[in-house]
Amino acid sequence: MLTDPRFTIEVELTVPFHDVDMMGVVWHGNYFRYFEIAREALLNQFDYGYRQMKQSGYLWPVVDSQVKYRGVLRFEQRIRVRAELKEYQNRLRIDYQIFDLASGTRTTTAYTIQVAVEEKSQELCFVSPAILFQCLGVTP
Prior knowledge:
The chain is an alpha+beta fold. 20% of the residues lie in helices and 34% in strands.
């Protein structure tokens, strides 16, 4: 099921000046912006982006994340960020990889975990809501 091509996306970005430190290296916290760009594109690909999440009555906060910095990213470097949906039944786990566009070298691996929270009650959902399964085209 997770082999559906809609559950993986790649976006190309150029590292902007405002993301780097005095040494011209991307500050570690800015990697999450690159993940967010790829995550939003991935969610939109199966029609459950942030607007649709909010309209469906669920919030999806990130509750866990991990990053492994394998190489540095620098100002004006062209990169490719891959986001892949790995889990969806009880939470959304999205794995990320960042590659240098010129060499193809992988510089970063990461994941984020999001859980559904019903907006009205602010209750945590222990199973993903039916709307997610519907957008994914799977049965719960």
